[in-house]
Amino acid sequence: MVDVKVKKDAGTSKKLRPDLDTYFMNIAKVVAKRSTCLRQNVGAVIVKDKRILSTGYNGAPTSLPHCLDIGCLREELNVASGERHELCRAVHAEQNAIIQAAVHGVSIVGGTLYTTHQPCIMCAKMIINAKIKKVVYGKMYADEKGLEFLKQANVELVYRPSNEED
């Protein structure tokens, strides 16, 4: 059951609805719970005209073993977050959301991507080429190049620090 915030105003009770950014970020947080990564659970939701077009979470490619089952090479090698992306067996949440839209023939041009974490440089390049116009993200990430690319491409960026009450 979901708690509903109620505002007391001059003796009346009024239900407060979350704004759309909060609503879609909360959905991205739920999507992240499907992640099979041992290091970070990331979720992404692509939205256009207030409608969810696609979702994705980070994990191994379809039909390949998950890190949850076989371990993490980056963890074993003590690779810092944001470095040596090529060693990671996971497809990132943002990438999976873009791929799922493509697989199902859904145009995401002009959409907004909500993601629990700041996009890395690899995801930023895909976001730019997918013509997503806005990215809303919740947690900072060690790879600052992603944000630099998105800014250069005039993608609107909104940082919404993760809040457990959202």
If you average the pLDDT, what whole number results? 88
* Most strands sheet: 5 strands, mixed
Task: Give start-end ranges of low-pLDDT stretches.
Answer: none
Shape: globular
Quote the beta fraction: 15-25%
Please report the distance between the alpha carbons of the first and last residues. Answer: 14 Å
Helix percentage range: 25-40%
Total DSSP E strands: 7
Q: What is Rg?
A: 17 Å
How are helices and strands ordered from N to C?
A: EEHEEHHHEHEHE
Number of helices: 6
Q: Which structural class should the secondary elements be placed in?
A: alpha/beta
| Spatial order of strands in the largest sheet | 4-3-5-6-7
Would you mind describing this structure in some detail?
By secondary structure, this protein is an alpha/beta fold. 30% of the residues lie in helices and 22% in strands. It has helices at 20-32, 67-70, 73-76, 93-103, 121-129, 145-152, and strands at residues 6-9, 12-15, 43-48, 51-57, 112-117, 134-139, 156-159. Strands 4-3-5-6-7 form a 5-stranded mixed sheet, sandwiched between helices. A two-stranded antiparallel sheet has the order 1-2. Helix 6 (145-152) links the parallel strand 6 (134-139) and strand 7 (156-159). Helix 5 (121-129) packs parallel to helix 6 (145-152).
